[in-house]
Write a structure and sequence with these properties.
Chain lengths: 327, 327, 327, 327
């Protein structure tokens, strides 16, 4: 399996390293309009440089692509890969608006493409294990999911301005996790918070609490913050009628320190998303390669991306209007 | 300090035992229309039996009362104690409707009574310690409070029928905890759940997720369930701008068992509220006795009861109408 | 069951309080040559004061005694109670030398007394639960027991001078715990430590590591220190062929605090033995009263005291001579 | 830095993968008398195959070697590398007898070689962090070190027969850890156990408890077992005069499961040494490459190997003779 990489930015570098380490595929080419970044990545791993995504799609020596371009280009690149018959792993989100995804789906009709969406958290070993256990009935029927999801620090103000807002930018991952456990969502109640005075004039929330329900009445609650003193706070609890599953934060060591005032104190959480989700990115790529090898639809896919996006839009509406939105 | 006990039921027995063990007061009398219960309690601790609350209020050898009568009589007994100039510790809730509490407050005008309300959780050593640390600024400004509060098992259907509904009966404690940390609440978004088919026709919810905010935009999220396989699930997390405080469940031992499939497994949680909150009841009584001794208003008091009740009414409205209610 | 208390010191006060709270017995009398202490305890609980242990033994209105006199009088008081036909709960250790216990046993022959020895740790809810699980086979055949046992702070130098040394004074409890799990001990290897310069000239060790084995080759390792910055460090691990059981320290709350540098830090351990083992003292008394009520020999008893003492003597010999002592 | 690998067995494969992933060195050659293993490794990473260690030592295009040959050849290969002026990282143990290491040291005189010994546990992120904190004085003067070290399952009987015994084969790592924290050891008290009937006739112990002391009187206690139901049990506690540091086992996820009978149960420990110490092997190699780059003596080195070996011999003597051995 020969892979081409569209993009040479931060997340592209993660995928490049993961591809370099797997035995199941070979990274062979890269393309990025940023000449310097493209050359750096190409020379590091000995890759062919393509002039554009289009020449990559036309290249017979590339079997599949990983799309790490900016979000506004995702749809164009997914379509290009699909038309070339090349399986694609595309970073989230598919697009900024539900309407764009609907158009994409129309354009893809008849192409029967293999497209996987990079909701990496489904592949985190702990979250995946909770899902596996929950699906196997280890805690009975799922009744309540509680997701604590806090970034270590807010992104730059400029980033926030073009991010699409906290729900599409940050909570989108948590919406996907809620769907991972509860399936389709039917109601959205969201509270937005403006806690950091430095971010007050961005027009975006920097904290949020969102409650989702599915048709069976199970609920998922998401608590979000743009900052967390102890690191990247990523926890999950699945409460079922016969038990509870919890996934805790990751720390660099297992060391506990005890002294006169405090005992059993641990390290701060891993605080960079690439470190925190390192294993998840590798396992996500495995799923992509396995799905191709086995000729099956990978999961999550465009539909999952569209549904998470729809929830994000509903959350924004709920938080802005003070109503509980029904989907 | 000579104490009279109004009521001889389950919670009255808790207070009797606590009063028996303290050196700061002496339980001297009890009254309850249930003859058998009253006699049992009186003979166990060598107490004088009063015919009614009224004769107790008139008794000069009683300095203060603890009101454990059924909720519908709380107002009458608070008023009686106040008119007799006796401090009173009254079990929650003050009443079933906000309107009744408003009338009570009017009737109490000019009496300047010492009335404490039995929101016992404020006195739980762990929750109280979180509050003490948070108030001292240990985690900076409070931004998000997350309360997991699940009963070990649903009460009998007959109880539910007269309970006033999950928000007034069960969540009322959590509303008080939210106020303990966030002060006055300005918005309430509630989702009600009907998960247990056995309880479907009670007309009450058996699960709920409620999000509250205060005027500064801090949020409290409450996750409730009428049942929990592992026991009485009572946890709390306070997230501030510089750290997080968590209080975990109580277990009977510190034992961890490891085997081939599972490691470090612990005991189920304490599952009976009297055991779980044993220390809280004792510390609550201490506060009542201290407040009397020091001539100060005890906390929490009728106002706290009224405000929790008002939130419960708003939660019911939010859950029934699908709107976020502003207070 | 009417109980007389011999002694009015610290541990006597613990037993008095426990007896006051139980429904199964009534504390009726106390005796202590220290007039002030005796009067204080007598008036607190409304007890009859006896002039001496002997008049107490002669009193028909006393059914059983709790012996809290200084160690040198234990044997005399055990014998007195036995001759009076009164069951006795005696604080550990029985005596300072194995030879004295042997003489006691001779003197007790034919009296068939009910004597229980106050090795309170066997009744700690967590250690007892480990024992219950281990005995029920929860971890298979026991192979290795690890006991961490550290006092919060060294006792006064004067106390150490008359304590009989760390092994008889402090480790004796751990030797009993080792026997609780492994039964009779056949070899003792001990290392003594002198770590605190302030205690260097007491002639006693202030730290120790002792390894014991039983006839089946199972081992118990005890790590002792006269001080521990985080409190009273009392942990236990039982490793069996199919699993491991651990009992952790007790803390006053379940609170965990997380900040920028440390996460999930907890309270220091309970650091006063009366607080740490409060539940153990109550359960120990229950066993004493139950054994009397059921007419059976309580456990642990004089034999257990003698065997722990014998191990302490062997440990001292091992540490002083650098040999592994066979029993 | 061009690296040659001597050996193509299991541990050689670990080093090959780690070398493949680092940017600081390039694995270029391999040699192993086992043709198949050598070819497999060579083709996987595109390596030159050398006929023997000697031709590798003579190869100017190799800058340093990693020695993964069988223990009996370690000395010969260390010497060969030293004579060729090539830095070497050699797997532990240096040799089976202290006398052989003494001869090696004599032969190395004047060669001033760079030799690092593969005591990988020093590089485990958690153990290394404990060391870093302890060295920085985070818990004051170290008084007691407790090491729990249990393999998931006993090796084959044939392996045990040629292993040199549990102390040289397994505990040698723990002896090095004890030295890592306490420096030179002056006394050794060891108890050997024969718990598994299947291993009874190997003549070797399958469990052990060893207590070491240094000249300042600090003690290290090691509890060993050839098997552990829950996985590879690798824990460490450093107790100092002002606090305690603990390193816990590693698990594949952070998931905790709670049900009716058990709560907060976790995964079994990682149970394969290559997985458990994966990060340690990578960090060990980093230290080797850094030491070469910076022209300094790497740590641990031959002297550390010799001293651990000497303790192992003393432990065997102590366990066999029932005496505490002084070094």
């Amino acid at each position: 399996m020969r892979i081409g990489l569209i993009g040479a930015g931060r997340i592209a570098n993660v995928h490049a390293r993961t591809l370099h380490q797997t035995d199941d595929a070979t990274l062979v080419a890269v393309t990025d309009p940023d000449d310097e970044a493209c050359e750096a990545l190409a020379s590091k791993y000995g890759l062919k440089r393509h002039e554009s995504a289009d020449t990559m799609f036309a290249d017979d020596e590339i079997d599949a692509v990983v799309i790490c371009s900016p979000t506004p280009q995702h749809i164009e690149h997914i379509l290009g890969a699909a038309r070339a018959g090349k399986p694609a792993l595309c970073e989230k989100p598919v697009a900024m608006e539900t309407s764009s995804v609907e158009k994409l789906n129309k354009d893809l009709e008849g192409l029967d493409p293999i497209v996987m969406l990079g909701f990496n958290r489904r592949f985190d070993p702990s979250f995946a294990r909770v899902h596996e256990l929950a699906t196997a009935g280890a805690v009975g029927k799922i009744e309540q999911v509680t997701i604590i999801s806090r970034d270590p620090a807010a992104p730059p103000r400029e980033y926030i301005a073009t991010s699409g807002g906290i729900f599409k930018d940050m909570t989108i991952h948590d919406f996907d996790m809620a769907r991972f456990f509860l399936g389709d969502i039917v109601s959205v109640a969201a509270i937005g918070q403006n806690l950091d005075p430095e971010l007050a004039d961005t027009g975006d929330f920097d904290g949020a609490v969102i409650t989702l329900t599915n048709a069976e009445g199970a609920a998922a609650t998401i608590v979000n913050s743009r900052h967390c003193a102890s690191g990247y706070d990523q926890r999950l609890e699945v409460f079922g009628c016969s038990g509870t599953l919890e996934a805790d934060n990751l720390r660099p060591t297992t060391v506990r320190i005890s002294g006169r005032d405090t005992t059993a104190g641990m390290d701060p959480y891993l605080d960079f998303f690439l470190t925190r989700y390192e294993a998840a990115y590798a396992r996500e790529l495995d799923e992509f390669l396995s799905a191709i090898a086995e000729g099956r639809t990978p999961s999550p896919n465009i539909e999952d991306g569209a549904k998470a996006l729809r929830i994000a839009e509903a959350a924004e509406e709920s938080a802005r209007t003070g109503t509980i939105v029904t989907l």
